[in-house]
Sequence to fold (293 residues):
Amino acid sequence: MPRMIFPVLAYLVLAACVLLGVADPLYLDIPARAQLAFAGLVGLAVGGIAPRILRGWMAWLALSAVAWIGIGFAHGLGHLAYLLPAALSVGLAAGLIAWRLPRERRYWRPVPLLAGAAAVLALALLAEPRPRPAVYRPPAFHPFTAPAYTLHLLDGKTIHSRSLGRKTVVLAFWATWCAPCREELPLLQKLYAAHYRSNPDVVFYLVDVADGVDTPSKARAFLKKHGITLPSAFDAQGKLMDDLRLPSELPTRVVIGTDGKLNYRAIGYGSYASGFPALRKAIKSSRNVSAAR
Fold:
């Protein structure tokens, strides 16, 4: 029975590594530094366990496999895609060195463990938090004619601004990692359902700004989970925000009127509870422009 403990622990460690990998796709809110510490502990455990249950080249193969698993699961985590595998590798090295020291030198074991902990701590200090939405007052905004643009929707359709004709277009820029966006999207959905669903001249499009973190499948899963049915485009490089002269802050809402001008821009996460009065006023103003012409 005692010999079975090590394989069981090894499987538990690998399961923990899997949990770390799915934390982001499942929107588990685990701080970056906690993920790094966890990756270091996973590596330390595997570095200590694998040589006890495997021999020779098999142990090294197992360690390499776990390291590559860590790299694969870290894909899509932005800056953590580089730091997580590094923390995992530090833990592996510390565990391997500490637990393979001869018995007569086991009193040296704390040295590699402390060195590994210091290295993981250094990596944690490098782990800057993901960008957070701005709450500052943006610089003065002046309406301008919006350039032609294309929306690549998550359902595979492509919408070009020319095909929208003389419709009022509301664009809401968001991302799955943006906490205020998660609050905003259901309220935008309610706003559209209550005031604009039956109005064919007003269209809403969400735009996921990937920022190296999101993927189309992640965005689709997020919208489905939260019951958001507004059509959403995917902008991997943030090109549309650049074209519309928008700062790279989320959430951001804009209105492009029937005259083709971007006449409203809102950055940050204010006035949700009051039903987006400024946004509704901007939409109404854009329709009045159409009527006047």
Q: What stands out?
A: The mean pLDDT is 75. Residues 144-292 form a domain with the Glutaredoxin fold (CATH 3.40.30.10). The two ends are 85 Å apart (CA to CA). The chain has nine helices and eight strands.
